[in-house]
């Protein structure tokens, strides 16, 4: 098959691994820099142009859209969908997952376990907002942060109030969330492809840190999921409409709670922690699913 990987950087581990395993499986793989794509959005024969030429019709695309380029990146994916190209993750699903608030609301609708979470812009009663999520300690998150940046632990009510006031002064949208202390600075990354958890790892925060992000010095190891955790991850992927994603779960006293769902999960940590060839599984899924016009929304909002 002719498959394009949309990625800003061909040297990233995930991009390299995808190219290598796609070629090993006999596919024709091209890496396209998302931000260098451009298009006539009004043409009745939609196309994507790149370096002065119209791109050929691919059988499938694998979007790897970084958080900082979500807006442009999803527009490019939408254009491919309008051409009838299969995208492993649809543009609408990528947009959904990028917004922490929208994601939590969608997951909540499906009855998936979540940390108690409040959303506010300018409440007159910060103490009531704190009460809603069970009081301090709480985790305060910038709505569009990533890699652990913009996630703060406020240990006392006073600290929480000052941080919330400071963020509000900056007109930032924030989530205030119950702190799942019993998770002990660890979370579980479940990699879901085509409705199945294909690999899972536990990430442990560095000493003195509560954020387990590998970018924040966390370490990863293989973990065995409980059936409930497995089911939760699959339901979360389904609620977001993502064929391929990383579902991050915390082990709370009341069972697994989903923290976030990532539509461009990195492959390096999970492949090295589990020894699994996740990149090849992505192609196996595409081989099975990518038929012309199989992208459900065909670019619809
Ligand atoms: P980001 O998108 O920046 O990765 P997350 O919501 O995933 O933001 O939070 C970063 C890390 O902080 C998580 O991986 C987890 O280790 C920790 N964390 C986030 N929310 C909570 C919470 N409610 N309770 C305990 N730890 C949390
Ligand atoms: Mg995270």
Counting helices, strands and paired strands, the structural category is alpha+beta
In terms of quaternary structure, the protein is single chain
> And the CATH topology of the largest domain?
D-amino Acid Aminotransferase, Chain A, domain 1
Distinct small molecules: adenosine-5'-diphosphate, magnesium ion
| Parts with pLDDT < 50 across at least 5 consecutive residues | none
**Helix content percent band:** 25-40%
Tally of individual helices? 9
The name of the CATH superfamily of the largest domain reads: ATP-grasp fold, B domain
Report the C-alpha radius of gyration, rounded. 20 Å
Outline, from the CA principal axes?
globular
- Label the CATH architecture of the largest domain: 2-Layer Sandwich
From the N-terminal CA to the C-terminal CA, the straight-line distance is: 27 Å
**Biggest sheet features:** 5 strands, antiparallel
| Percent of residues in β-strands | 25-35%
The secondary-structure element order is: EHEEEEEHEHHEHEEHEEEEHEEHH
Overall structural domain count: 3
In the CATH scheme, the class of the largest domain would be Alpha Beta
Please provide the count of β strands. 16
User: How are the strands of the biggest sheet laid out side by side?
Assistant: 14-13-12-15-16
Can you describe this structure in just a few lines?
Helices cover 32% and strands 26% of the residues. It has helices at residues 13-24, 70-82, 91-98, 100-109, 126-132, 157-169, 227-240, 268-274, 278-289, and strands at residues 2-6, 28-32, 37-38, 49-50, 53-54, 60-63, 86-87, 117-120, 138-142, 151-154, 174-178, 186-193, 196-204, 219-222, 244-252, 255-262. 42% of the residues are buried.
